[in-house]
Every structure is written in structure tokens, then in C-alpha cells.
Amino acid sequence: MAPDPEQPTHSLVAKEGNSSSEIRSPREPLLIGVHASESYSISAAIIPFLFPALGGFLFGYDIGATSSATISIESPTLSGISWYDLSSVQIGLVTSGSLYGALIGSVLAFNAADFLGRRRELLAAAFVYLVGALVTAFAPNFPILVLGRFIFGTGIGLAMHAAPMYIAETAPTPIRGQLISLKEFFIVLGILTGYGIGSLLVETVAGWRYMFGVSSPVAVIMGLGMWWLPASPRWLLLRAIQGKGDTQNLKDIAIRSLCQLRGQAIHDSAPQQVDEILEELAYVGEEKEVTLGEMFQGKCLRALWIGAGLVLFQQITGQPSVLYYAASILRSAGFSGASDATRVSIILGFFKLIMTGVAVVVVDRLGRRPLLLGGVSGMVISLFLLGSYYIFLDNAAVVAVVGLLLYVGCYQISFGPIGWLMIAEIFPLRLRGRGLSIAVLVNFGANALVTFAFSPLKELLGAGILFYIFCLIAVVSLVFIYLVIPETKGLTLEEIEAKCL
């Protein structure tokens, strides 16, 4: 049989030791029978996560570096260009160009993951990242600069669509939540790296070119890593069960992929696990290819309602707006360094990283619902404190500082990682590519809307009323989580489809 083009032709992972890195975890009863234990080697399970997560790192880096890059571009002495005198609209295009590119990438991704496969979509994202970074770094004029920002953003849309799917479909069930949440950790790490490199290069002539260009070697590493990794076994089995290739050949490739992804600890149980997944896929009806009409009916509609609703509330509960006020809040509290927006950003970046790390550690122990309910409840309190500070308590700066830190911390243990985790888990396999595309489109669309509407709303209503509105939206999101969001901890992706939808 000819090898599937989605499967790289390298040999399997080298034999792992049988020490503490080898894990055997019990599974819930199979939907139709009894599961074998799910064995995996920690080192083998972690490596496949790292390269897709670099797609999130590059997304975060772009967020962190862009603020310093725009300062560099506008400098008459340090920009290194003759067209530095940009209007506010032009600066807005530089700043938000990658966001609108991400919207384009989300649309392009609608069929990409099912047609190309998760691995090849991530390869495409790495290539687009590389092209976008190079075009932006070497841009000879403003239109080419904006074009580069749009291209890079398209890579963001593809990566943020495919990475959660690939990680969810390849991760062992007991640590799936931790690995997908670690992607959010990589996003925050990228933001922090962008702030740091931006602060180092902001005084360098043409520093903005270096800030944008730094993304290119990371994109190359991501591409090489995805070339080495195997295809998602579940994607291969979906093609097998839907008759899109030779069934036995696809099963054989899925077994080899699973062995590479789980390491030597899987021993001889890979064929049995592949057969179990195939049985579960048949049991929940995955052999039928989803039509556009079916996406808005039954359990497909429920999955869309859960996924799109969660990422919508993730964006419209005010996170960009709260961070917009970070510098002024800390300055009013008497922090001398707070007048420097870059230093404030780095301090908050470290705090966000620590709180995201907390979520990663506990997400598979406590579950998704407790973190969402607890974290969003804290966000409600923090938004109320911030609104009250700007209306009633303008002399009590400590209230604003507490509100700011409480908001950032609670967001990073709830909406931040859990939003991306849930959309990767909740969609049925045959819907996952298209469903995630819609969810990512909602995410970036809502982000663009909030970013666009914030300034005029602040001018019209004032900061206090605006924070009270965000507080009310957070209360609505809390009700949505309590009534709609299921607990998926400890369930396989097929069990989530059968039991939660």
C-alpha cells in the first residue's frame, strides 16, 4: 500500500524507558464495551504539543510586539523610513491588520482541516506566518507593510483553528485539558516575549523591522516540527469510516501515528485503541459526513451554541478594555514605574503567565465548570470594583488595583484557557473542522468589534458606566456557563459527543 501523504516517512519515536515517564490511566467504560487502560509516555505525549503550541506563541508575540513596533514606526529619528508620518487610521491598520487577517484565516479554515488534515493545516499556518513576518520586516512602503500584517494574521487564523484540534485529538485523555490549556500559556508567554523584545529594540534604528522579523525563525521551527509529527489518528480514522481512502491502510497509518504520539508505553495496545475509537465513531454516527444544514440542527447546533457562546463571552466581558486602563490605574496608585506602559505591560504579562500556569495545573483535577464558574464570578466582582472606582471611589486607588489584578487573574484561570479548551473538545469529529472555524471566526470578530467600539463608548458613557456594562455581561455569561456548559473532564472526545451533546 502507498503511504498516506499526511503521514511523514520518518521512523517511529525511539524506545522510552519504563520509569516514571510511563503512565497507565484507567478509562471510563467504553460506550459499547470496556476500555483498555490508556497508556502513554509523558515525554512522547508532550513533544507533539510543543510545535502546534508555537502557533499560539506567535499569535501572542504579535500582540506583545506590535505596541512597541508602532512607536518605532512613528519615530522620525528611529523609524529608518521616510514615510513615518502616519495618520491614526494608518496606525490602526498596522495595529489591527493581523486581527483582520485572522478573520480571513478563520474563513479559509472552514473546510481546510477536514480536507487537508490538522497537521497539513498547521504546516500551511507556519508557512503563512513565515511569509507574513518577512514581508512585514522588509516592507519598502506602507501598503506592503499592511499586506504583511494581513498575511501574518491569516497564519494566526489558521493556527488558532488547527492547533486546538490537533492537540485535542492526539493528547491522552487524562492530560488533554492540561495540554490544550498550555496553548494559552504559550500565547501569554508570546505576549510577554513580545513586550520584552519590543522594549529592547524600541530605541534601535528600524527596530520595528527586527520586532516583526523575529517571528520568522519561530515559524520555521514550527513548520519543521509539524513536518516531523504524524497525522491526527482520529482524522485518519474519520476518513476511513467515511470511505475516503483504503480502510485498512488508514488504520495501519493511525496505529503508527498513535505509537509515535504515545511512545513505547503504549506497547502492543495501539491496534486495540484504534479499534475502540473506530467502534465509538460508528456508535455516535460519525460515518455520515455533516452537511451545512445539519450543522444547525440537533447535537451539532448544541455544540455550536456551547463553543461559539463561550468564545463570544470570552471577548465581550471587557478584557482589552481593562488592560487599556492598566497604566493609569497603577500610576494613580503611586507606582513610579507605572508611567512607562511597557513596564506595566511586562508586570501584568508575568502575572497573567503565573495565573495561566495555575489553570494548567488544576484543569484536569478540578474540571472545566468549576474553573469557569469561579473565575467568571471573580471577574464580576472585579468589574464592579473598577466601575465603582471610576464613579464613586476615585480617591481609593487600591480598589482599582485590586480590581485590575483580580480581573486579570480570574480571566486567566477561566475564559483565557478554558474557552480554547472547550471548543477543541465539544465539537463532534465530523463537525470539528467547520465548527471550530465558526467559533474562531466569532472569537476574532467579537474581538474586532470590542476593539473598534471601545473608544467611542468610553467617550459617550464614561469608563465607570462601561465597566458596569461589562459587569452585567459577565453576570449573563455566568448564567450561560451554569445552564449550558457541560463538564468534560475525564471523558474521551467520543464520550463527550455521546454524553454531553
Quick synopsis:
With 501 residues, the protein is mainly alpha-helical. The chain has helices at residues 42-74, 88-115, 118-137, 142-170, 176-201, 207-213, 215-228, 233-241, 247-262, 270-283, 298-316, 319-324, 326-332, 341-366, 368-391, 397-412, 415-426, 429-461, 463-484, 493-500; strands spanning 22-25, 38-41. Residues 1-5, 7-22 and 24-30 have low confidence and may be disordered.
Description:
- With 501 residues, this protein is mostly helical.
- The chain is 74% helix and 2% strand.
- It has 20 helices and 2 strands.
- It has helices spanning 42-74, 88-115, 118-137, 142-170, 176-201, 207-213, 215-228, 233-241, 247-262, 270-283, 298-316, 319-324, 326-332, 341-366, 368-391, 397-412, 415-426, 429-461, 463-484, 493-500; strands at 22-25, 38-41.
- Strands 1-2 form a two-stranded antiparallel ribbon.
- Helix 8 (233-241) packs antiparallel against helix 9 and helix 15 runs antiparallel to helix 19 (463-484).
- The longest helix has 33 residues, at 42-74.
- The two termini are 38 Å apart.
- The model is unreliable at 1-5, 7-22 and 24-30 (pLDDT under 50).
Index terms:
501 residues; mainly alpha; two-stranded antiparallel sheet; 2 strands; disordered N terminus; transmembrane transporter activity; MFS_Sugar_Transporter; transmembrane helix
